[in-house]
Amino acid sequence: MKNIQPLNYDIIKNEWQLLINNTNAATHQTLMSLSDEEVRQLVDAYYQYMLQDEKAKLFLSTTQVEERLSASMNNWLRKVLGSSCEDLSELIAHQRKVGEVHARIGLPIDLVARGARKLKYELFQLLLNKPQISAKEISDAIFFSGMAIDSAIEVMTIAFTPSHQKMMHDQEHFRLLTVYDDMNVERERQLGALKDWENQFIYNIATELPFEERVLLSDSEFGLWFAHKGQHIFRQPDLIKKIDSLIQKIDRIITTEFANESSDAFSRIHLLRMLRQDVEQVNMILSSIFEEIVKSENGKDPMTKLLTRRFIPTIMGREIGLSIRSGKPFTIALLDIDYFKKINDNYGHAVGDNTLKNIATWLHEYVRSSDYVFRYGGEEFMLLLVETTLSQAQVLTERLRNHIASQMIEVDVDTSFNVTISAGLVEFDNHPDYQRLINKADQMLYQAKNNGRNCIESYPFGMDNSL
């Protein structure tokens, strides 16, 4: 994807430039001279149409349309219809950003395509009803506007696809993480199941159990787990294929070589050695994959054991959907350890690490089991407080701040120190883009730091800005 995407953007840019250059000035002028009232009618027709769709209503509200989205769509339409070679790079960059936002909020690509189709229909009808313009100019304007809108949507789609795929992968990984919360336990269980099958098979051969009663590796407890669950946990396709190939090879040895009831003891021992070598390979590969998951792919920060920010899109996307459907609020808080660099400088990184672990423990103690605690990065943490208003979150966070400030971090038997936190809070405002909400919380955290630290600042509920 790293090499393909820029190439696709270059193709679109080159073709869009060619479209602009091959379109006469009169056509450009026709589209750029659409009145504010005409553009407003197009935008109104677009949103009236989209708000009739139940799926679209999850991402739109009448208030959002009136207060912000209509103006944004008006601006977008003006820029696309008035696109020129001079501003094309900036225009394409904006479409990419829009596509990434669509991926973050989980906006289905078919809704985007449907909206574009409706917008073009209304625009074409508007142009066809302009008696003062010649049929040739109308035809040229329809052609240019349709191609320009399609090009913009194509850029959005290219940006949408990899972001959406990553989000879907992370959603699935988080789901599996909730099933297999302790990968160490799962590793021992599956390695044990593999060993049990091997021992049982060797015993069956030694006791000359009838062939039809022997269990293939693919039909064993381990084999079934690998086929239905294991392959979906692991993200190393080459190693997955290797294990699958080994399982098939082992089964093939069993069904062909061991099926010969008249084989002598020497032959059976030779086959068992071959089989054991293959099982040992499966064991080694499986162990290495689990080890990698335990180290870095289990979604937990190794130091604090908190969820990493990797799962913020998945979890916030889900909570946003729940909040929009139920009308119940949630609030997020970004917290930062004050003067953390000084702790590392004065006492060493081991003490700094211990401070992070203590903060993580205290955060868990003060939130409910239904809430989420993330290590956001460095000395920053994030809380997602479900079904919690801003005022309720302020009370909880203030109690948490006071508690942390009252605790002592021990350096040694003779030395200890206090630590404080700053926090920025924001309540969900029904905008489907989680990053916008995080940006508001970050803005409040920055304000808390500027106000002397060891304090909490909250984004006024209902206030909007360009974030």
From TrEMBL:
Its top-level enzyme class, in one word, is transferase
Cite the EC number. Answer: 2.7.7.65
- Any idea which UniProt keywords this protein has? GTP-binding, Heme, Iron, Lyase, Magnesium, Metal-binding, Nucleotide-binding, Transferase
User: Can you supply a Gene Ontology BP term from the record?
Assistant: cell adhesion involved in single-species biofilm formation
| Protein name, entry field | Diguanylate cyclase DosC
**Biological pathway:** Purine metabolism; 3',5'-cyclic di-GMP biosynthesis
Q: Any signal peptide, and if so, which residues?
A: none
Question: Native species of this protein?
Answer: Buttiauxella gaviniae ATCC 51604
As its record notes, the protein acts as a catalyst of:
2 GTP = 3',3'-c-di-GMP + 2 diphosphate
Q: What molecular function terms (GO) are annotated for this protein?
A: diguanylate cyclase activity; GTP binding; heme binding; lyase activity; metal ion binding; oxygen binding
Q: Which Pfam families match?
A: DosC_2nd (PF21118), GGDEF (PF00990), Protoglobin (PF11563)
Report the domain of life of the source organism. Bacteria
Its Gene Ontology cellular component terms are: plasma membrane
